[in-house]
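Researcher: Structure prediction, please.
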Amino acid sequence: MFDLSSDTFQTLWAQHPLPAQTFHYGTAGFRSPHGSLDGVAFRVGVLAALRAQHLATNVGVCVTASHNGHQDNGLKIIEGNGEMLEIDWEEHATTIANLRTPETLSTLLAAIWPTTYHPECSVIVGHDTRPSGPSLVQAILDGCRSVGQAALDLGLRTTPELHFAVRESNLPAAPPIQELPSLYYTRMLSAFRSLAPACGGLHVDCANGVGTGLLQRLEASVHCVPFNTNTADCLLLNHQCGADYVQKEQRCPANTPLPEPGARYASLDGDADRLVYFIPTDIPDACQLIDGDKILTLWCKFFQAQLACLALPLIIGVVQTAYANGASTQMLRGMGLQVEIVPTGVKHLHPRAKRFDIGVYFEANGHGTALFSHQFTSALAAYKPTSPEQATALARLQACQQLLHPTVGDAIADLLMCEACLAILQWDVEKFVSLYTDLPSRQLKVSFENHTRIKTVWDETKVTQPASMQAEIDKCVSMYEGARAFVRPSGTEPAVRIYAEASNQVEADALALDLKKMLEGVKL
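Model: Predicted structure follows.
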């Protein structure tokens, strides 16, 4: 049990003061310039201890700012099942992160700390390649130690790797926690090998981030060529490279190899939880983007083909956000799939995908995975193939369950899934990119100190506050034929994000700029 009057607690608390700002737990956890996060990291250690004791499981803390530059960092809690922090606990997280005296923390913990202590539970911590990572990890460990909570530092890990470790550590007969990163790698590679042979001709932009090490280990087995692998120079992390850069700018990452006939090009982000493909064009640095919407569509084509072979009446459902290109949603519905639109963020996509036998979710930015229901698993286990084709389809679907991450988007597992789908369907990258023609779109953001004062409906497609803002948006949209647009407060930074879609790129760009100008004139 904790004793906040102890010398240990008092000493550690004094070492990790808070800066003069308020922190909010959002989609990305706590994210800020790294210099402001030491005191928050200590309190996140306390929060993680509290969550571990409430759940009576191991939990995790991931130290990363994903696709942001090296100057930022972030702190995310991982639940015992490997998923994101329960939405109901985000308020506790925000409260604890902003407590400025031991007395206020003591009062709060006395009210909500469980009466039964679970000494077997640990807080598992990992970080990406940012230089600020190790010191923030130490602050988290101090927070755990201050309340008597066991904790373990797994060191340099991708975000999906850490989620995997937390989930697996809580399963019956789990191996020692230190062995779980090795299990993550071997299980993923084994599943891929049973799905399809490596094809070669794959170039992967690693964003100079933490995914580099895993890609380099996979290089020989998958016949891929990693580039942007300099993790020693923090200035290069996500700089003109990475999935976010390619998707937002629709430009090739720095150091892209010269185009080769039949070659495929993919890009991870800095913590390896996002994936996009791209095709270099004849225009210098320009590319054709193959984003999360098209990756999702490829997977659904593959799943439909395997289920048709088995004649199993299982339901494939798709979960997207308002950022999904309109052409994508139209095609998926035309394939006979159920499509649901939810707010941005894994915390909304993931639970909705659980409702289907195969629930596939992706954001356009390349973050996604597929989930498989208990009914799906049972149906496969009971299935008796009557032909070699059915035996193959059955084995493929079972391998997908092993390959794909069950709790978060995993850029490396998703990359291997895409390569397997392309090989099995016998598609080249041109067929991949031509699944449908994207409606031209443009994304912008406007810095806003009070961005959270902008409120939207549940799926984020309409603004509800300020009351007059949606009418202004509708007026802008009405100026362009066949257009749609929305604005929403960012969940990761003090900014408002703009999405505009129109029948041609000139009008999509113009609509986005109209909305930007409108927002810049708003006072909140």
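Model: The CA atoms of residues 314 and 357 lie 6 Å apart.
Researcher: Thanks, that helps.
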